[in-house]
């Protein structure tokens, strides 16, 4: 039974773990056999809930987890020993020791970081696992590609560092295949100049959008997948012919109040909407305090009884007002779909994000703590 009828909640996100697992299988099936799957689960697994998502990923058999920071990494380590965990962001010097404590793999971009970690390894009598990140045009983390060969040589000479991977990150894999090619070329050139790179190295560049242009005869042997595994294509009309994923996330609330108001009445803060006719409005029990973006004020719509109902006026912290004049069966307590399917209609995460002038990644990260995650499709063990 869907959570719409059973949930006593005012606002909730439903996460379909069975669909998640189907997505993983489809993505893995679409990748060349040698490709290792690095599951990106930063930011509470894109808002889906780290423990539930990570557990399912462990059951499904991924090769490595990637997170933003050591706190997220520690959460995964507590769930299972032995899993490789790559920290994608730079470590703060204050955090270095966690790498030893939790057996993590660090990302390095500079000689300074390498020296710090080498000293840490020496002090602890161990080797610190690192991936060298190369900046091929993202302008964020990584050593600038022209300087990468020199740093690679230096790393290999550091006794307490163990180089396990080399990677780069695309800035525009979802919008500019030409620039992505430039980045691929820069990356491969940086690697070519280095003879004797161990075959055991993980070589990776592709995020969800990248795998569209990933060719079979490349040195890459791993991909870093975030958004796609959660069932959201990285760009709207993506060719991702290789992988058809299904949404796993839906976002729900309820009608808290219904009332009739005369035409001309102002709706919500700052009076940005005036009713054009005598209307019936429904006040929903979710607002930006739950993750309904303020940007949806006067633009978005929701699904009630499988009908689209427009948002009126400003979204507020705890409530959102919609027009139900044309949906006379709507009643207090009824479920409302913010993202997801209702009858023949669907509001996808992508559509919701476009309406809110943002991107699906931000939408998923913006569903707040107040919103209970309800998991369906659990696995019998
Ligand atoms: C977040 C992240 C990814 C995953 O990107 P998606 O587009 O969500 O697949 C991959 N690599 C790095 C470095 C990231 O920060």
TrEMBL record:
It comes from the Bacteria. Substrate binds at residues 140, 317. Pathway: Amino-acid biosynthesis; D-alanine biosynthesis; D-alanine from L-alanine: step 1/1. The keyword Lipid biosynthesis does not apply. Transmembrane segments: none annotated. The active site is at 42 (proton acceptor), 269 (proton acceptor). Residues 248-376 form the Alanine racemase C-terminal domain. The keyword Lipid biosynthesis does not apply. InterPro entries: Ala_racemase, Ala_racemase/Decarboxylase_C, Ala_racemase_C, Ala_racemase_N, Ala_racemase_pyridoxalP-BS, PLP-binding_barrel. Its cofactor is pyridoxal 5'-phosphate. SMART domains: Ala_racemase_C (SM01005). CDD domains: PLPDE_III_AR. This is Alanine racemase. It comes from Thalassobacterium maritimum. The gene is alr.
């Amino acid at each position: 039974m869907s959570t719409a009828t059973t949930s006593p909640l005012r606002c909730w996100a439903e996460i379909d773990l069975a669909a998640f697992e189907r997505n993983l299988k489809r993505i893995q099936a679409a990748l060349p056999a040698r490709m290792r799957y690095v599951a990106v689960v930063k930011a509470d697994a894109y808002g889906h809930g780290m423990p539930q998502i990570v557990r399912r990923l462990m059951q499904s058999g991924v090769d490595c987890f990637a997170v933003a920071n050591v706190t997220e990494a520690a959460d995964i380590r507590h769930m299972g020993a032995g899993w490789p965990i790559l920290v994608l962001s730079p470590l703060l010097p204050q955090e270095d020791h966690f790498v030893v404590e939790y057996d993590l793999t660090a990302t390095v971009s500079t000689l300074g970081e390498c020296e710090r970690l080498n000293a840490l390894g020496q002090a602890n009598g161990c080797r610190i696992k690192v991936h060298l990140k190369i900046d091929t045009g993202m302008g964020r983390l990584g050593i600038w590609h022209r300087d990468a060969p020199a740093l690679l040589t230096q790393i290999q000479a550091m006794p307490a560092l163990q180089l396990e991977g080399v990677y780069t990150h695309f800035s525009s894999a979802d919008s500019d295949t030409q620039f992505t090619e430039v980045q691929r070329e820069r990356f491969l050139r940086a690697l070519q100049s280095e003879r004797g790179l161990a075959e055991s190295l993980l070589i990776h560049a592709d995020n969800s959008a990248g795998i569209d242009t990933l060719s079979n005869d490349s040195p890459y042997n791993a991909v870093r997948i975030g958004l796609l595994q959660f069932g959201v294509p990285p760009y709207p009309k993506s060719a991702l012919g290789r992988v058809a994923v299904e949404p796993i996330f839906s976002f729900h609330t309820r009608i808290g109040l219904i009332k009739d108001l005369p035409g001309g009445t102002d709706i919500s803060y700052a009076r940005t909407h005036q009713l054009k006719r005598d209307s019936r409005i429904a006040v929903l029990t979710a607002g930006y305090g739950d993750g309904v973006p303020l940007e949806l004020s006067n633009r978005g719509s929701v699904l009630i009884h499988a009908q689209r109902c427009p948002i009126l006026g400003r979204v507020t912290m705890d409530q959102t007002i919609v027009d139900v004049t044309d949906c006379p069966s709507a009643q207090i307590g009824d479920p409302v779909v913010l993202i997801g399917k209702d009858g023949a209609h669907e509001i996808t995460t992508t559509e919701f994000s476009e309406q809110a002038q943002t991107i699906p990644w931000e939408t998923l990260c913006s569903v707040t703590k107040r919103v209970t995650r309800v998991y369906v499709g659990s696995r019998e063990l």
